[in-house]
């Protein structure tokens, strides 16, 4: 299947000043990320806070320009942000953020906010747009009378539904969801994820689902990519990655998922996540990796197929190039 979104070798660097009078250092927030999203499929992007997931989401939508690499949407290069060609594409690519209250305008009724992208992109006849906005609200399970409500008059779950209605009103081809459920109660999280999957089926949406929650990612995704310090370290089918993670970082993430009856197999990583401005040499995970070897500190592994199951892994040990060091796994 041809991907509707294809990103190759994305790099995004920021300058950061150390201390008040300190010199400026370079932070590589995203460091050579390649990914693709197909029509009607979801790619889950998972990793700790600060690993570069959100920056990757903004890069693939063209909201930020990469320092290197390329993004193609529906077989055409992504136009530079702010240009008429990019604005014309925005109705086909939408983003859903973590905080629904922050994403909505508190001074405008929900219906007007759902209609806004239809007005901006001049979609349909002006006289039909209020009805289309109501339809979009209905599609996400909100009642027509709720169109007149203001964001603070809705619950958190209803607000996130309104955000989804706004994103889906233009019938986009691609949806980038950045932690769309992490601000919601657990009971509402399942409803919003089900809604996303229903709308995906209805519209054939390609979704990039960004989350720190591996369980949520597994539920909605057709493929999962695990990120660590700006790079993808493992990518594969959700069941394969969750049942048999190959990369030591993915193994630690999976082992931290609470599981009834699981005892004694949690992998406790040593140390804190490294400062992106002080990136370790070789494999960026080596200072925390339980099986790191001296070779790992010298040579950065490349993301490549591990075997015939379609799994991509960036790890010398998982690829069988070096033997693991003695493990220090804690129970
Ligand atoms: Fe650990 Fe080495 Fe693999 Fe990096 S390359 S994850 S340090 S074993």
TrEMBL record:
<dbReference type="GO" id="GO:0016887">
    <property type="term" value="F:ATP hydrolysis activity"/>
</dbReference>
<keyword id="KW-0547">Nucleotide-binding</keyword>
<dbReference type="InterPro" id="IPR017871">
    <property type="entry name" value="ABC_transporter-like_CS"/>
</dbReference>
<comment type="similarity">
    <text>Belongs to the ABC transporter superfamily.</text>
</comment>
<keyword id="KW-0067">ATP-binding</keyword>
<dbReference type="GO" id="GO:0005886">
    <property type="term" value="C:plasma membrane"/>
</dbReference>
<dbReference type="GO" id="GO:0015833">
    <property type="term" value="P:peptide transport"/>
</dbReference>
<feature type="domain" description="ABC transporter">
    <location>
        <begin position="5"/>
        <end position="254"/>
    </location>
</feature>
<dbReference type="GO" id="GO:0055085">
    <property type="term" value="P:transmembrane transport"/>
</dbReference>
<keyword id="KW-0813">Transport</keyword>
<dbReference type="InterPro" id="IPR050319">
    <property type="entry name" value="ABC_transp_ATP-bind"/>
</dbReference>
<dbReference type="GO" id="GO:0005524">
    <property type="term" value="F:ATP binding"/>
</dbReference>
<dbReference type="InterPro" id="IPR013563">
    <property type="entry name" value="Oligopep_ABC_C"/>
</dbReference>
<dbReference type="Pfam" id="PF00005">
    <property type="entry name" value="ABC_tran"/>
</dbReference>
<dbReference type="InterPro" id="IPR003593">
    <property type="entry name" value="AAA+_ATPase"/>
</dbReference>
<dbReference type="InterPro" id="IPR003439">
    <property type="entry name" value="ABC_transporter-like_ATP-bd"/>
</dbReference>
<dbReference type="Pfam" id="PF08352">
    <property type="entry name" value="oligo_HPY"/>
</dbReference>
<protein>
    <submittedName>
        <fullName>Peptide/nickel transport system ATP-binding protein</fullName>
    </submittedName>
</protein>
<dbReference type="InterPro" id="IPR027417">
    <property type="entry name" value="P-loop_NTPase"/>
</dbReference>
């Amino acid at each position: 299947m041809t991907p509707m979104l294809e990103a190759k070798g994305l790099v995004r660097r920021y300058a950061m000043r150390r201390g008040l009078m300190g010199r400026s250092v370079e932070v590589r927030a995203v460091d050579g990320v390649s990914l693709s999203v197909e029509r009607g499929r979801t790619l889950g992007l998972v990793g700790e806070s600060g690993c570069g997931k959100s920056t990757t989401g903004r890069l693939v939508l063209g909201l930020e320009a990469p320092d290197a690499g390329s993004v193609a949407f529906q077989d055409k290069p992504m136009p530079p942000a702010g240009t008429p060609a990019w604005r014309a594409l925005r109705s086909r690519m939408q983003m859903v953020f973590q905080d629904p209250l922050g994403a909505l305008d508190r001074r405008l009724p929900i219906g007007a906010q759902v209609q806004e992208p239809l007005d901006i992109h001049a979609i349909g006849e002006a006289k039909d747009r209020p009805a289309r906005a109501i339809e979009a609200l209905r599609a996400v399970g909100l009642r027509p009378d709720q169109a007149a409500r203001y964001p603070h008059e809705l619950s958190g779950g209803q607000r996130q539904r309104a955000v989804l209605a706004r994103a889906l009103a233009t019938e986009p081809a691609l949806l980038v969801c950045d932690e769309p459920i992490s601000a919601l109660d657990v009971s509402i999280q399942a409803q919003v994820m089900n809604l996303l999957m229903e709308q995906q089926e209805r519209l054939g949406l390609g979704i990039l689902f960004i989350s720190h929650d591996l369980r949520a990612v597994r539920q909605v995704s057709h493929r999962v990519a695990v990120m660590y310090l700006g790079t993808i370290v493992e990518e594969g089918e959700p069941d394969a990655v969750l049942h048999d993670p190959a990369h030591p970082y993915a193994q630690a993430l999976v082992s931290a998922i609470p599981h009834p009856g699981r005892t004694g197999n949690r992998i406790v990583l040593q140390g804190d996540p490294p400062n992106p401005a002080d990136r370790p040499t070789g494999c960026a995970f080596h200072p925390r990796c339980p099986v790191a070897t001296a070779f790992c500190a010298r040579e950065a592994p490349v993301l490549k197929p591990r075997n015939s199951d379609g799994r991509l892994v960036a790890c010398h040990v998982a690829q069988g190039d070096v033997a693991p060091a003695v493990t220090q796994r804690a129970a």
